[in-house]
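Lab meeting notes turned into a lecture example. A postdoc, R.K., suggested we walk through two folding results consecutively so the class can see how the record format repeats. The first protein's sequence and structure tokens come next.
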Amino acid sequence: MSAATVFVARLAGAGVFDPAGERIGKVRDVVAVPRADASPRVVGLVVESRASGRVFLSIGRVTSIGGGQLIASAVSDRRFRQRGGERLLLAEVLGRGVTLRDGTAATLEDLSISERGPGEWEVDELFLRKPKTGPFGKGPTTLAHWGDVQHEPGAEQGTEHLLASLDDLAAADAASALLDLPQQRMMEVAEDLPDERLADILEEMSEDRQIEILDSLEDDRAADVLDQMEPDDAADLIAQLPAERGETLLALMDPEEAEDVRMLLAFGADTAGGLMTTEPIILASDATVAEALAMVRRHEFAPALAAAVCVTLPPYEAPTGRFLGMVHFQRLLRYPPNERLGTLLDEQIEPVLVSDTAAEVTRRMASYNLVSVPVVDPARRLVGIVTIDDVLDHVLPADWRAQEEAKRG
């Protein structure tokens, strides 16, 4: 073993490789078992694997730790399930309050684990922060051993380390990681996530889980999160709530966002109007290729939305003026920056009506190999766009996310 001691906060997100150098995944947590007469014994790591999700890696399989990465001889392909008595050091221990022998309160900000023998690891030193003594800065820090502090079972636990470990995950993976936490811990972390991040994560959960988390939030916070969701996802979620709370949240949302959601709620779930999002990229016919490329580069647009630009007459927010056509991203790359979009319209792409069935939308997208299709009203005003992910959500079984969550559980 190349390193005998390592702090666990530095392990979060560390790459895991096999002896041949092939990447296996990333470290998401450290699993330990408390002992009555000694510091907790480390039994393994939770590793995020692209192939199998969160899996367990026995500490005895780790052959090297160093340089921000681990080498392991083998990783199980079985989904990690926390057993009774096991503690997740990042998710459940870091951030907790403790009491030093002199009675001073402190917060456990990090801890080290040390190798005592081949495959035998245990918690070693605790990195603690005492309360600050002045109005500025942070409190002083100190090191202590596990037995030198009193651990209160009910002590509050901060979420900083866990939030940091979720930060670099894709929304679907972050949703999976959040659902792996104990119920109370999941709600604590959800409460501390930024509105935009929580919105992205909720969009990747089953409706039951979405409602469960939304019900745990105060109305004002829930409305803020709904503001950050895609309008079609927010509409789907509000449709599952009791009518009274749905109306309360809509009244608290940003008026423009609420207007989009109300419009979507008026359409049947099995229609183009019920599938679409109301926020496509819309430009005028005299806008240039350079302007269009600047729009599709913006990070807030999902790849499917950024695959094409809709061109309409004014106004340029849905419902727009008359829909003129679409220009696909690939075509934008073939023309000079000063070319006008009105000369580049794809005349083969016909929009669908808001009343068209989801089956018709699916057939249209499959027939023309589209990742998105515009949606217009009877006056040919653009009201939204259906993307491939909207269609996939519709054609998959209604409970497909719940089935995935059940597999993880």
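The second example is placed directly after the first for contrast:
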Amino acid sequence: MTAFGWFQPSVLGMTGQSRALEVISGNIANVTTTGYKRSESSFQTLLSQSWAGPSAAAGSAPVTFQSDIAGVSTVDHLRASDPGAIKGTGRDLDLAINGDGFFVLDDGAGGNVYTRDGAFSIASVSDPTAATGTGSAGYLVDGSGRALQGWAYTGATAGTAAGGALGAMRVDSGAFTDAGEPTTAAALGLNLPASDAVGSNRTYAMGILDSGRSPHTLDLTFTKAQEANTWALLVTGDSGETITVTPPSTDAGAAMGAGQALSFDGTGSLTAPSTYTIGVTYADGATSNFELDVSQLTQFAGDFAVSGFEQNGRVGAALSEIEFDSQGHVVGVFENGFSRPLYTIALADFASPDGLDPLSGNVFAASAASGVPILGQAGENGFGEISPSALELSNVSLEDEFSRMIVTQSAYNSSATAFRTIDEMTEAARDLKR
């Protein structure tokens, strides 16, 4: 090594420690950045080679080599595989991945980037085809406006990693509507007073939806019969409606809409029938056909009291809000209270997540070192589950970073001292010739 080479290890040492301090500073600056992944600097030895002896010619002695330690170089390592703590936020559009995987984002240039930062929002973009008055549509995006990617449902089935194209997820109120459903099943629970006199009437107004999803009211009239523990049932509606009840009443001259009498045992429990099938034709041509479950009817001493009524019909409605579950389903909640899955959020994993390339905006790009992305759904095939209303915090530990900073500063000062000592030695050697 030449005299000038004496300075090289010290210069490279200071350069390397400067780079390490730069990485530490970046980690500390991002200690509160959601989903941030810290980096570390490691060092590797550099060798220089010198040789002595004649040139390698025929009959000459072989060239001899000597290796000298010439300093260090730095290598940065991303710690993307180290998870950060998950903290609840209470915000509906915040998502965290509890386990392996990255959210997939559209980079706006025909490719994808990946992130663990789940602070999403709904961005309104111009869309002339949107079925809204403003000609705009709302999509789930990250803080930089990159669209979150997922698979859309078709009917009751979602696309999967094995089939179905990834795409942006539109979730504004005009994106989806629920067509509603007519009433096909209903259940009624009430108590008919055992002390009522023969001929006493009790009425309950039952709301249902017809084949056009329009609401109607049918009156159920219960009449105490002559036979002990027996009540007649009559179903009536508005004028012009035709109503049939099955099983029908067996009484001679029973009115249309009369059903088989309700029978109770000595303990007040219903013995027959447990269900009625009711058919209605309305004046406007709409129809209703549904099964009414009356198995919860009782005849106890006390008042006429309704314990519950349910029916499965619903009116059409627009999308009201969205929710998320642990498997990454985007669930739409409609104004009529009905909910159904709209999308499945896509997750990506890599053979070596620490080989990803960090980009601005807290996202990463795939690289040769990371391998190609493997797509899947949360909670399946090794992917972590989604934690709604939560965010993954930075995986930076301030204690560890300050410890590294102290060691880095000491190493830099030592390299600077070595440089200064060599400089003084060379000055002394220079002065020897005077």
